[in-house]
Specification:
Its EC number is 5.6.2.3. This protein has 699 residues and is α/β, with parallel strands linked by helices. Helix content is 46%, strand content 11%. It contains 27 helices and 17 strands. Helix 4 packs across helix 5 and helix 15 runs antiparallel to helix 16. It starts with a helix and ends in a 6-residue tail after the last helix.
């Protein structure tokens, strides 16, 4: 017996620290060891030691969060990293991570090492209340920032007897009381902890970064909630933030986040979209008019009038412009943006001429006008690296938009260039390869090195500080698989007998097929549609054909309420659009079928994606495959991933677009999906669903 005991003790001694932490964390939540999770943790530990970037695909159910937290925290405890940032896609996921996974991981680290790193959650400025705005109430004409339609949105519920103004006022009063309570207890006044409120009410007690007076000049600078949150972050070893703040940090000289040695980016399939959003802007006549009215009291009449009239010039140009990309600086839009730029420049000059003598409201008005100036200048410049286009919104009419043609250069230089980066998601391999996602974030095929680095212990560190960001950025791609047995748990049915989707709405044959599949599944269906119109048409048809079925459709009520009912009412079905393709987690018998009406290609008239396709083609690549097909593959992978969420789940994904099987790009798209058992036979699909819904021993 002595020899095995010695071997066990030797194994315990030599086991890497991150594995011990992972074992303790998994045991702490009564979980089970997953080989993919261990492989992921090993790879991340090696990446943090070697400095080589890592793209790791970890399927649903792998336990990604603990898989990256264990190696990150042990590196912090050991002192081989001074600070690590974890960035996830949304504020909701950020909170979930901070409230659930990090406490479990920290408890495990303390159990294993006796030490516990400090962590902090860091968000953008507008997620924290502003004491100055809350106490001062803003400028006298602050209400001019809100139109009647905006105020109507603040009504607590449909049919409420409250007036819009009183509803908004009551919300703001509740928020101000809560803010004072947060101040007294030295809290952070984080929006997530605020009383129930509307977006418009929150805008009355928070402040955009541009309008912040600064700690030195603000009368409440010593109590600033944002500064408190930054102080907490600077004292932390592990910082949890979101993609948007990571992008802002990259764009503004790394001033938004404290110094850090490594970044772990969760839900990394959304990174490009989030960074693009952070680097984009809009300009509308209404925005110029609101800012102009706000600044008018501090301006000479002529200057104020010029600024307000520039809004009219922009409105006329927008009405004259096509709803597409604009590239000519001498076009009506280009000339109108130049007019706005000139008027805003003069207004900014006058508003800032008083220097420190200007009152706080004037300085805030100057900041708002400066933002108008910056956007107008960017649009008037019509840079080859930007895409400027005209769009039309149902409520507010036409506006000009600008977005970067590509964000890969920004990410390569400002995110990957100075530190080790780990990207992880359930969807990083598109078409069966990491190449498309790697290219989108600025990593090059020739820089890929999938050799296994020398294990975490004693690995040679690659100090990136001071490196040329244009130098090589070696990276590794790793797929650790999934604990799910997709061929046994799920079926992929491609309806090759249906007509290809057209522009005139769904064919009667397709609608009939949806009804039959919902009938076979006894409800229990998540319908993912390419448009609201398609979802509503399908819901109307199925309700008529299956009157006893509960068909919930996006738009019937708030989406959160529809999701709640879908989970609670086992035989219900939920039909909707893009917001349901990602982030919906409905395990068990509530969802045994996912229906996808068509391949989710981007809109053929999307100016930004069209410009990106053209750019790829001009560089000698295949624009359609690099942009449109990659976009569709990512959404398809996310959509089909809604089906199997637990090891016990069983079900069917029905794609009612025959092009997935027949088109040349079909193999690329299919290679991006989970490895379900495939069929093109409708009867096989229907009978499989019937077996899932028929109790054993019944006919």
């Amino acid at each position: 017996m002595a020899e095995p005991t010695a071997q066990v003790r030797e194994s315990e001694t030599t086991e890497p620290g991150h594995r011990k932490v992972l074992d303790a964390a998994v045991s702490g939540i009564s979980g089970q060891e997953r080989p993919g999770q261990v492989e992921m943790a090993d790879a991340i530990a090696a990446a943090l030691d070697s400095g080589r970037h890592l793209l790791v695909q970890a399927g649903t159910g792998t336990g990604k969060s603990l898989g990256y937290l264990a190696p990150a925290l042990i590196k912090l405890v050991e002192g081989s990293a001074t600070r690590i940032v974890v960035a996830t896609a949304t504020l909701a996921l950020q909170s979930q991570l901070a409230d659930n996974d990090i406490p479990a991981a920290l408890a495990a680290v303390k159990q294993v090492t006796g030490k516990q790193p400090r962590h902090a959650v860091l968000k953008g400025r507008t997620n924290y209340a502003c004491l100055y705005r809350a106490r001062s109430g803003g400028a006298d004409d602050q209400a001019a920032l809100f139109g009647v339609d905006d105020l109507a949105d603040t009504l607590p519920s449909a049919g409420s007897a409250a007036e819009p103004e009183s509803a908004l006022g009551a919300e703001v009063l509740r928020l101000r009381e809560w803010i004072e309570e947060e101040h007294d207890r030295t809290g952070l006044a984080d929006r997530d902890g605020a009383p129930s409120h509307s977006e418009r009410a929150w805008q009355q007690v928070s402040i955009p970064v541009r309008e912040c007076l600064g700690v030195q000049r603000c009368p409440y600078g010593d109590s600033c909630f944002v500064e408190r949150s930054r102080d907490v972050a600077r004292a932390a070893d592990l910082i949890v933030t979101n993609h948007a703040l990571l992008a802002i940090n990259a764009m503004h000289g790394e001033t938004a986040l404290p110094e850090h040695d490594a970044v772990i980016i969760d839900e990394a399939h959304e990174l490009v979209s989030r960074v693009t959003g952070a680097a984009s802007a809009e300009l509308s006549p209404q925005a110029i008019e609101r800012v102009g009215r706000r600044a008018a009291g501090y301006l000479e009449d002529e200057v104020a009038l010029d600024l307000l009239e520039s809004a009219d010039a922009l409105r006329a140009a927008l009405d004259e412009s096509p709803l597409e990309r604009i590239e000519d600086p001498d076009s009506p839009l280009g000339l109108a943006c130049a007019t706005v730029r000139t008027a805003a420049r003069r207004a900014v000059s006058d508003l800032t001429s008083g220097g420190e003598k200007a009152d706080p409201e004037q300085r805030q008005a100057a900041a708002a006008v400066k933002e108008i100036f910056d956007i107008a200048e960017r649009m008037a410049g019509m840079s080859q690296y930007d895409v400027i286009w005209v769009t039309e919104r149902e409520r507010t009419g036409r506006e000009a938009c600008v977005a970067p043609l590509s964000v890969s250069g920004l990410m390569r230089s400002s995110i990957f260039g100075a530190r080790t980066v780990v990207l992880t998601s359930a969807t990083l391999k598109l078409g069966g390869d990491f190449g498309p996602v790697a290219a989108s974030v600025g990593l090059r095929p020739e820089e890929r090195d999938d050799s296994v680095p020398n294990g975490g212990e004693g690995a040679e560190s690659d100090d990136r500080e001071g490196e040329d960001p244009e130098g090589p950025q070696p990276w590794r791609g790793l797929d650790v698989g999934s604990p799910f047995d997709y061929p046994r748990q799920g079926i992929l049915y491609i309806a090759t007998d249906l007509p290809p989707p057209g522009r005139d709405g769904m064919a009667e044959q397709t609608l009939a097929e949806i009804a039959e599949l919902v009938w076979a599944a006894g409800g229990r269906t998540l319908g993912l549609f390419s448009s609201r119109r398609a979802a509503e048409a399908a819901a109307t048809y199925v309700r008529k054909q299956l009157p006893k079925q509960t068909i919930l459709c996006q738009g019937d009520a708030q989406l959160t309420e529809l999701k709640r009912r879908f989970v609670a009412e086992e035989e219900s079905s939920l039909f909707g659009t893009l917001s349901l393709w990602q982030g919906v987690d409905v395990p068990g018998d509530t969802c045994i079928q996912v229906i996808i009406d068509r391949i989710p290609f981007p809109r053929p008239d999307d100016p930004l994606l069209l410009a990106r396709q053209r750019s790829v083609a001009e560089a000698g690549g295949n624009g359609f495959m690099a942009v449109a097909a990659t976009h569709a593959a990512l959404l398809l992978a996310q959509g089909t991933g809604r089906l199997i969420r637990r090891i016990s789940d069983r079900g069917l994904v029905a794609v009612l677009d025959p092009r997935l099987a027949t088109a040349r790009y079909g193999s690329f798209l299919r290679a991006s999906l989970p490895a379900f058992w495939p069929t093109r036979d409708r009867e096989v699909a229907v009978q499989a669903l019937r077996r899932l819904t028929t109790p054993p021993g019944t006919a």
